[in-house]
């Protein structure tokens, strides 16, 4: 049997391709199959969804144990970060059993595979990781610093010490890391790992519904947006600090802030304590229709301290809405290409947020042009070319 490439994704296959990073795995598997290099594509669960290439769930029982785990978590209010680690460890346990000794390369987008990686090395298999987020220890340090700054204590998937320990046990077996996002590349380069870090810049763009940049310039009202499931890393508190000063120092401007998405309890408590009297803020909670939310805006603010590929910024660009986005967000690289469709700012910089919001408010035509540039960048980006480049790299080291 010829040695081939095994692709692994922690996410599951959906009816169209794949959820999250499974979409990258799906497209890459399809490309590798055309080159007769694919062994199979392992996903968490698959259901009845068929693929034009060999694909299998990590276990025939995965759909059932995920359902049982979800019910258990809901019944006993288990924190999401513990649930995430349980899922990852179960996936790892079953994935180890799926390994083939004839596999030449194990390609994965998930680093939490201690048992799988250990067995792969015993089999003489080369392990290649393409992470969808920056390096885990870097994120942990960043969140810890922010907890100290804010005087709060939050625990999530990125600061759960047992999960970080599992990552550190796993990463020691990885041979090569593909840095597809600038933040992933730089943080893995700076980390003390043995793996070779290779830069192949690329982005996972979602399947967008058709949109246009037909929104007219409105000189009467101006709408700023923010949307995320807010944890400490999303940096919402820096936007609110900026907004507080904008409202205080510019009482006569007609501008409104729309905040969408749920919040973790410690962040909600912090915001309630520190920003009790913000004016011109629309707290929207869960937003089910993201395109409709975007189409109301003039500017989206993405103040994240670190973010692999915030899809909200890409969704805004698809709707010709420019973003004020930090340099620690992977999407900023794509949006700023050519005639930039975003304003890139440092993290933790409320003054930069203030400056860019007021500039956009006072320069509506320039703001609209920025949105047009953003849409051009997203519409003319070829994710297929990125997939081909990754496949070329895998083929070169496989040979």
Question: What's the layout of helices and strands?
Answer:
Layout: E1 4-8, H1 22-34, E2 38-43, E3 55-57, H2 62-76, H3 80-97, E4 103-108, H4 114-122, E5 126-129, H5 136-150, H6 161-171, E6 176-179, H7 182-190, E7 196-199, E8 222-227, H8 236-249, E9 255-260, H9 265-274, E10 281-285, H10 290-295, E11 299-302, H11 311-318, E12 323-326, H12 331-335, E13 342-345, H13 350-362, H14 364-379, H15 383-398
Parallel strand pairs: 1-2, 1-4, 2-3, 4-5, 5-6, 6-7, 8-9, 8-11, 9-10, 11-12, 12-13
Helix pairs in contact: 1-15, 2-3, 3-4, 4-6, 8-13, 11-14
Q: How would you summarize this macromolecular structure in one to three sentences?
A:
With 399 residues, this protein is of the alpha/beta class. The protein folds into two domains: 4-205 and 382-398, Rossmann fold, CATH 3.40.50; 222-379, Glycogen Phosphorylase B (Rossmann fold), CATH 3.40.50.2000. It is 45% helix and 15% strand.
């Amino acid at each position: 049997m010829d040695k081939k490439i095994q692709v692994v994704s922690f996410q599951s296959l959906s009816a169209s391709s794949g959820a999250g990073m499974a979409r990258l795995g799906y497209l890459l598997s399809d490309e590798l199959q055309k080159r007769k290099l694919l062994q199979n594509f392992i996903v968490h669960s698959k259901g009845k969804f068929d693929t034009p290439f060999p694909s299998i769930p990590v276990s025939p029982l995965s759909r059932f144990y995920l359902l049982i785990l979800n019910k258990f978590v809901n019944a006993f209010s288990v924190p999401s970060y513990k649930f995430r680690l349980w899922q990852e460890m179960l996936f790892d346990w079953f994935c180890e059993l799926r390994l083939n000794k004839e596999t030449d390369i194990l390609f994965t987008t998930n680093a939490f595979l201690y048992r799988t990686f250990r067995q792969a090395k015993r089999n003489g298999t080369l392990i290649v990781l393409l992470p969808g987020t920056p390096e885990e220890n870097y994120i942990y340090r960043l969140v810890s610093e922010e907890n100290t700054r804010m005087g709060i204590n939050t625990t999530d998937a990125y600061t759960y010490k047992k999960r970080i320990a599992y990552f550190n046990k796993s990463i020691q077996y990885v041979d090569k890391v593909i840095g597809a996002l600038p933040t992933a590349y730089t943080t893995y380069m700076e980390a003390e790992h043995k793996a070779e870090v290779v830069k192949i810049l690329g982005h996972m763009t979602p399947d967008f519904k058709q949109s246009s940049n037909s929104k007219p310039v409105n000189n009467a009202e101006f709408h700023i947006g923010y949307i995320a499931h807010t944890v400490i890393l999303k940096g919402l508190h820096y936007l609110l600090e900026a907004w507080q000063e904008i409202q205080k120092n510019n009482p006569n401007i007609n501008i409104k802030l729309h905040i969408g998405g749920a919040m973790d309890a410690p962040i909600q408590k912090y915001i309630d304590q520190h920003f009790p009297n913000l004016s011109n803020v629309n707290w929207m909670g869960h937003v089910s229709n993201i395109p409709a939310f975007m189409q109301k805006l003039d500017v989206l603010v993405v103040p994240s301290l670190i973010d692999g590929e915030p899809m909200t910024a890409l969704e805004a660009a698809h709707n010709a809405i420019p973003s004020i986005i930090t340099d620690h967000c992977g999407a900023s690289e794509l949006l700023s290409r050519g005639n930039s469709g975003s304003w890139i700012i440092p993290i933790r910089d409320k003054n930069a947020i203030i400056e860019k919001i007021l500039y956009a408010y006072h320069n509506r035509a320039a703001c609209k042009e920025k949105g047009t540039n953003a849409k051009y960048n997203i519409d003319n980006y070829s994710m297929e070319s990125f997939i081909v480049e990754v496949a070329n790299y895998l083929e070169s080291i496989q040979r």
